Amino acid sequence: MALLRLIRHAATAALLLAVAGCAGLSNKRGIDGSPASESFEMAARVAVRYGTDGYTGSLRWRHRNERDSVELYAPVGTLYARLERDASGSWMETADGKRFEDHDAGALSRRVLGWELPLDSLPYWVFTRPAPGPAPLRTDVSPEGRPTLLVQGGWQVRYQAYFENKALVLPERLELERPGLKVKLIVSRWAEPGAWGR
Predict the structure, then answer these.
(1) pLDDT in tens, 26-45
(2) Which domains occur in the chain, in start order?
(3) 3-state secondary structure string, the chain?
């Protein structure tokens, strides 16, 4: 998969620049409507380190009733890969038109991208909630009562900044880490379903 290797090498070179530039999200829209963990849309920048490789870019994520669609974009804005998941399994299409399938979305992303996107647990974690399954090993909360750390399923999820919109408080910056892998998400927009066209 020469195209994916080329994008990975270019992304590794841009990783430090992209992470350093994350503070410059001046046009972020914040929170639109009332997104909930059962049904939401999210736009974010992504910076990933895995082994000696890396990926930087952006994503658009739509989650509705146990169905997910995640579009990953290269730093130049072109589609890198699309990951879909529902009750029947998961599948991924890459920029070169290839299609891959697996029952588990995390295993599929690890096989195709080289790094794992824990899509089974992530809809809960991004709302600062433990995912179903084994209880968290640790949860830390700030003096203001906001989660700062969640450790579950071999992952550490750190919440570094939040959006505030009336009664809604949702993560703006978070890091997911496990041995050999760190995924940083800088959210530019939370929205209720169907908001992309607004």
Answers:
(1) 345 699 989 999 999 999 99
(2) 2-153+162-191 (2.50.20.10)
(3) CHHHHHHHHHHHHHHHHHHHHHHHCCCCCEEECCCECCEEEEEEEEEEEECCEEEEEEEEEEEECCEEEEEEECCCCCEEEEEEEECCEEEEEECCCCEEEECCHHHHHHHHHCCCCCCCCHHHHCCCCCCCCCCCCEEEECCCCCEEEEEECCEEEEEEEEEEECCEEEEEEEEEEECCEEEEEEEEEEECCCCCCC
